[in-house]
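Here is one chain, start to finish.
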Amino acid sequence: MAEERTLAIIKPDAVSRGLAGEILSRIHKAGFAIVAIESRRLSREEAEGFYAVHRGRPFFPDLTAFMSSGKVVILALEAPGAIARWRELMGATDPAKAAPGTLRKEFGTSIQNNCTHGSDAPETAAFELSYFLSGRQLL
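Its structure:
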């Protein structure tokens, strides 16, 4: 399996509930290298740009308001097959449908408040990583 990088975000709901440390611990235990990490609060404009693919959908305003409502932790993760492995560790978007032991099953409270974000494909990962992290941060 090829070495990959993917973007991960610990969302405002998880940060505000003090779950960032537990999620970071699970990332380490799963064998990911954290190539870059940054804690910050997104502006509404940053959230809108990041989720621009969803512009026009009914949930877009709520999603961007939520993602700019508090601090997030932005990570670049690296591992063989990182994209699929991170998505597996996160679990299904809807915590009610996520597999036992996944982050979203254990810590998510709704489809929106599901604790984590992850890239879904190599092209998406490339865009998302460059959206938040500079090339210098990703050396």
